[in-house]
Amino acid sequence: MAAETGTIDALSQFQLTPVLGPVGAAVGFSQSNAHMLLAAGLITALIMFGMSARAVVPGRLQSLAEASYEFVHDLVVGQVGDEGKRFFPFVFTLFMFVLFGNMLGLFPYAFTYTSHIAVTFGLAAIVFVLITVVALSLHGRKFFGYFFPEGAPLWLAPIIIPVEIVSYLSRPVSLSIRLFANMVAGHVMLKVFATFVVLLGGLGAIGPLVAVLPLSVNIALVGFEVLVAFLQAYVFAILTSIYLHDAVHLH
Amino acid sequence: MPQLDFGNPLMIAQIVWLLIIFGVLYFVLSTYALPRVEEVLEDRRRRIEGDLEAAQAAKAEADAAIAAHRDATAKARAEAQAAIAAAMQSATQEAAQRSEALAARLAEQVAAAEARIAAARDSAMGALRQVSTETAEALLQRLTGQSESAAVAAAVDRALTARGQG
């Protein structure tokens, strides 16, 4: 433990370690992937068990399942329009996967897979590939007109086209770094203040009294992190919807 | 920062597993889970719509019934008014007829009575001349012992004429 050695080690929580013994080690199955599997299982269970009653007047779990469905559905249809309905399952999967990743990471001893830039960039890359493929298949070569807006003076083309291309290519980067940075910052803060609690608590008689301060900060931080967890999942989903809108409508 | 340790073989494996898990989750959700939710929501929407429609139909029916009832009431009232008016009119007519007949009969009786009275007076007046002439002659005979019936008749005539009974 970091606290026992008297130093603050906020980053070891992000270390990948194989699970499931030698089999897991052989296939590179880390605790990050185990949490992904847990999240996927919980999402599926929420929908499947929640909707198993198929009640006209929903119970608690069914209300939760329906609320998440309608929340994402309204988000996608509101941003993309009626054409967006076929992307709804993708955005729903993305939103729930990120949301459950963020939320599961707040439990003690849990791992936050959305705090890995490789994971968030992997998800952003899926989005990037999807919007590019959708735009190309819907608009063909007209898609490249996206990089030069109609009506702009032709002599501005050498400036506008590189800017537009860079802004298009930076989408997955900003999408992934936003989520990654938020999660890492939150968990580092939690870890640092938790370490303070332990370090200050060991300071003799007044220790427990002083340690209340970082503890209360941590309690507030957990509430804040719940908000951030939801907000970042929402931002990820709504930015994906906005990119899909651009891909479907080109501007 | 362990997240930037891209030399770690677990990093590549993590991405591969991410793609597998995310892909399976997408497949399960889009094939089994989400259509189920949609089905339930659609069913509920249909049911609410159906209920609303039924309620609207029932309301229209009730409105029609109220309108029919109002019409029937108005019609019955109008009929009753007409019947009252007709009864009043016929009663008035009958009363008028009856009073007219009564008046006619009374007028007839009055006329008959007047005629009888006139006849009685005429006969009384006719007898008056004879009585007065005979009385005057008898008085004259008794007083003078002679009869002058012509002069007496002329005097009676004059006297009667003077009284306006001639």
Q: Flag low-confidence runs of chain B.
A: none
Largest interface by Cβ-Cβ < 8 Å: A-B, 47 and 37 residues
Number of helical elements of chain A: 8
Q: Calculate the mean pLDDT score of chain A and round it.
A: 88
Helix/strand structural class of chain A: mainly alpha
Order of helices and strands of chain A: HHHHHHHH
Task: Based on Cα principal axes, name the global outline of chain A.
Answer: globular
What do the pLDDT scores of chain B average to?
Answer: 89
Which structural class matches the secondary elements of chain B? mainly alpha
Coiled coil (chain B): 38-72, 96-123
Protein name (chain B): ATP synthase subunit b
Membrane topology (chain B): Single-pass membrane protein
Keywords (chain B): ATP synthesis, Cell membrane, CF(0), Coiled coil, Hydrogen ion transport, Ion transport, Membrane, Transmembrane, Transmembrane helix, Transport
Structure description:
The complex is a heterodimer of chains A (251) and B (166). By secondary structure, chain A is mostly helical. Chain A starts with a helix and ends with a helix. Chain A contains 8 helices and no strands. In chain A, α6 (117-139) runs parallel beside α8 (207-249). The model of chain A has no long low-confidence stretch (mean pLDDT 88). Chain A is globular and about 75 Å long. Chain A has helices spanning 2-5, 21-27, 31-50, 60-80, 88-104, 117-139, 157-201, 207-249. Chain A has one domain (63-249). Chain B has one domain. Chain B is rod-shaped and about 195 Å long. Chain B has helices spanning 9-144, 149-162. Chain B has 166 residues and is mainly α. The interface between A and B is large, with 47 and 37 residues. Chain B: It is a single-pass membrane protein.
